[in-house]
Design a protein that fits this description.
alpha/beta, TIM Barrel, nine-stranded mixed β-sheet, three-stranded antiparallel β-sheet, globular
Length: about 425
């Protein structure tokens, strides 16, 4: 073993979590907060106006404290009505969420949507509408069949050399198109024995060189718990890289503290897979958080879900990709929306995704072009897709291709 003496190898005690929408949500009875944090000292004009209007007794220091943000998340219709006018579709949906993905919005993210119309893309991301209550036969609660690929609690082992490690079912915001809506906000959290079994599974499977820590959102855990998880994974000699999947810089940028950066830097090489959906998410606060992570030496990649009426056109998608590069985030995947229950109003056709890819490739820099994939239903894994008209003819003699301008180009096979 390659132990890190600076790591926390035991699980810390936990304190109470507030700001939960129901007793079903993990953390409704437990919180994972640290008391030694240095917040991002930045409040945009928009957030400042929102804070003074709806949280008049709150200081800037409190607003910039990620623990305050989580304690004050909006989880019910009464609190939501205090800050915004809801449509009939939204009210009906929120009143029928029992047993479904809960409602949860940080005050910071609420400041981006409180005066918006129901069609606003950021608003649609977090506030349910009645269409979410409608399902069709092709939808499944676990469309990727992750449960079938889970040898121990928290571990999904589908690909040969890597595992997914879901360390929490809590997020600071709940996205309405979440792939894990069947579990996020509903299932029990991992206990010490669960963590130890997961660490032992990874240690006993020497083919695993890559561990993706996900959830929920791992960065809702406190620093001590993250240190404990990362140190135990890094001690496993055959694990080469660690990734963390998070949406925190987008919905809770205050979480990116100096102390968090110091902890993460101990476990390099460490990558962060972020999730962006629309260019309007890239605010002053979000930009500062991403640049702080990049300055810490962490490669940042973005995963985007293709969503009807939100980002399903080339100009919006190109703007998002360009803005990501400006904050040092490399576009990674563009996902076709998964077949979760009630996602019909979010899903586009696959053809639409291919049209967008065709509109990006060649018309902007390659760094701004993600890989379009379908995470195949039934646990088939990620399958990349390209427009079919790139290859016009291919035989033993040559290949004839069509470039982004429509010009035919030939390359010999011999």
């Amino acid at each position: 073993m390659n132990a890190n003496n600076n790591g926390a190898t035991t699980l810390p005690r936990e304190s109470r979590l507030v700001g939960c929408s129901s007793d079903e949500e993990p953390g409704a009875k437990t919180m994972l907060f640290s008391q030694n944090e240095i917040p991002i000292q930045l409040v945009s004009n928009r957030s400042s106006e929102f804070m003074h209007r709806y949280f008049p007794l709150t200081t800037i220091d409190s607003w910039n404290d990620w623990k305050w943000q989580l304690r004050n998340t909006i989880t019910g219709i009464d609190d939501l009505k205090k800050i915004m006018n809801l449509s009939d579709k939204e009210i009906m949906a929120i009143n029928n969420l029992k047993g479904r993905l809960p409602l949860r919005i940080t005050p910071y993210f609420a400041s981006l949507i409180y005066d918006s119309k129901p069609s606003n893309p950021l608003r649609r991301n977090v506030i349910p509408v009645v269409e979410e209550l409608l399902t069709c036969s092709s939808e499944q609660s676990d469309p990727l069949h992750e449960k079938e690929s889970s040898p121990v609690k928290g571990i999904v082992h589908r690909y040969p050399d890597r595992v997914l490690f879901t360390v929490t079912q809590v997020c600071s915001n709940y996205c309405r198109y979440c792939t894990r809506s069947h579990s996020v906000g509903k299932l029990d959290k991992l206990g010490r024995q669960d963590f130890e079994k997961a660490f032992n599974y990874i240690a006993n499977h020497k083919e695993v060189r890559d561990v993706l820590i996900s959830g929920g959102d791992p960065l809702t855990l406190n620093d001590e718990t993250l240190d404990y998880i990362l140190s135990n994974i890094r001690r496993i000699e055959h694990v080469e890289i660690i990734r963390i999947g998070t949406r925190t810089p987008v919905v809770l940028p205050q979480r990116i503290t100096d102390n968090l950066i110091s902890i993460l830097k101990k476990y390099q090489p460490l990558f962060l897979s972020l999730h962006f959906m629309h260019p309007d998410e890239i605010t002053e606060e979000c930009s500062k958080a991403c640049n702080k992570l990049a300055d810490g030496g962490f490669p940042l990649g973005s995963q985007t879900v293709l969503l009807k009426g939100i980002n399903d056109n080339t100009p919006v998608m190109m703007e998002l990709m360009h803005k990501l590069l400006k904050i040092r985030v490399r576009p990674y995947y563009l996902y076709q929306c998964d077949l979760i229950p009630g996602s019909g109003h979010f899903r586009t056709t696959v053809k639409k995704g291919l049209e967008i890819m065709k509109g990006l490739r060649g018309f902007t820099s390659g760094y701004a072009v993600p890989t379009f994939v379908i995470d195949a239903p039934g646990g088939g894994g990620k399958i990349p897709l390209l427009p079919s008209d790139y290859v016009v003819e291919h035989d033993e003699e040559h290949i004839v291709m069509r470039n982004y301008k429509g010009v035919l180009c030939e390359y010999p096979e011999k």
